[in-house]
Every structure is written in structure tokens, then in C-alpha cells.
Amino acid sequence: MKKAEAIHLKVVGQLDQRDVTLRTVSEACRVVLSRTARAANQTGLLDSVISAVGEAFNNIAVHGYRDEAPGPVEIEVALDRRGRLAVEMRDYGRSFDFVNARPPDLDALPESGMGIFIMNKVMDEVVYRPGRPNVLKLVKRLT
Amino acid sequence: MTYTTSLENDALVLYVRGELDAVSVEEIRESLDRLATAGHRTVIIDLSGLRVIDSSGVGSIVSLYKRVRAYGGHASVRGAKDQPLAIFKLLKLDRVLAPEEAVAA
Questions:
Q1: Contacts with A43 from chain B: Cβ below 8 Å
Q2: Among A55, A57, A83, A112, which residue's CB has the most CB atoms within a 10 Å radius?
Q3: Other Cβ atoms closer than 10 A to B71
Q4: pTM for the model
Q5: Predicted complex ipTM
Q6: pLDDT in the model for residue B105
């Protein structure tokens, strides 16, 4: 899919924008998927994307822009060169320490710290590049 | 997110509908605190109307489960489906919070 056919969104990185952001990203994913031959039966894929994008958005709103006024979150939804659904999120807040994030001890019934674990589990590829902007790329193969 | 409670066969049932996430968890926190200290022998969290959950929502349910268990009560989840069920399974919580449904699945 040509880069020009990507869908671009820009939202405010604050928690009360979470629901509208996820609904919009979900719809953008449906539009992008509708252009493929495998548009049907992607409910599970969409659930995974919403799970991952939701956790990422929480991190940006709660931690990323914690010490400043809420800033923008730029989201691009597209198919990558390998035909996978790719969602890229860019923010200009505090970077997240993705590398050193410890997986939760599930046997201990954790009540927090599960966000990055969920992202890594539901997506096929998660790439984070801290900086200004921070860039998070979430990739999922079509079913 | 909306929530209601009802008494069903001596069980306190909490129905949560819509989204249970970092935003709505704050709306339900006080009610969950009250529920956790009310001393009901059996607490059921009905998620059949829940569309989306995130890690904050999961944390609130796990917290309630642990608090009820701490005073000797029994808490469980029923009716989770779609994205919420996928998250519970991913976190291996389906067998803990909804053991009967996990076996039947």
C-alpha cells in the first residue's frame, strides 16, 4: 500500500481523549483493511490493535505528558510493505523506558504494570524509538 | 461506562458495561471500595456488557478479587467476551477469575 493511502490522525494526549481516540483508530483500521482482499474476519485483529493502542495512549497521557501540558499524539494507520497493519504513534513527551520494563509476574495477580506486556503480547512487532518525537510502531499480521 | 449492582441468590452481582479503563476506573473506584468492605460471601462481576478493558480496568478487578478473598469471600467474573476476554486470557486470569467458564471453553 502506498504511503499516501495511510490515514493520519492527531489527538490530544490526555486521558479523557482515550475513548474517542480508540474509536477513531478502530475505524481508521477498518478503512485500511477494507482495501485488502482479507477485510472480513479481522475482529480479533482489531481487538488486538485497540488493546495495544489503548495501553500506549495511557502511557503517553499519564507518563509522557505528566510534567507538562498535554501535547499531541500523531497516529498513522497503514499497511506496511509486507501487507501487515501498522499503527505508528508519535508523541513529544517524556520517553518511556521500554527496554528495561519488567514483565509482570502473572502468578502474583498483579494490579498494575501490565501495559507494555499486553502490547508485546497482542502485536506481532513492537518497535519504540525514544526521542523528540517518541515513535512507537505497532504491527499486526492480517488473519 | 455504567455499573449497577443487584442481589441474586445471595450473591452480590456487579454489572459493568461499556469501557473499564484508566478513565472509568476512577468513576467506579469508590463503589469497588465499598463492595470490598461490605463482606458479601459471594461477589460476581458480570462483564457481559463490557466492550473494552485495559490494564487499569484489569487491575481494579484483580484488586477487588484479592480483597474479597482476603476476608474469606469468593469473587469471580462472568460473561467476559471479545476484547476483555482476550485480555483476561492473555494475562492468564480467565482460569483464576472465571474458572467455570474457562473449563467450559
A1: 82
A2: A57
A3: 12
A4: 0.92
A5: 0.90
A6: 55
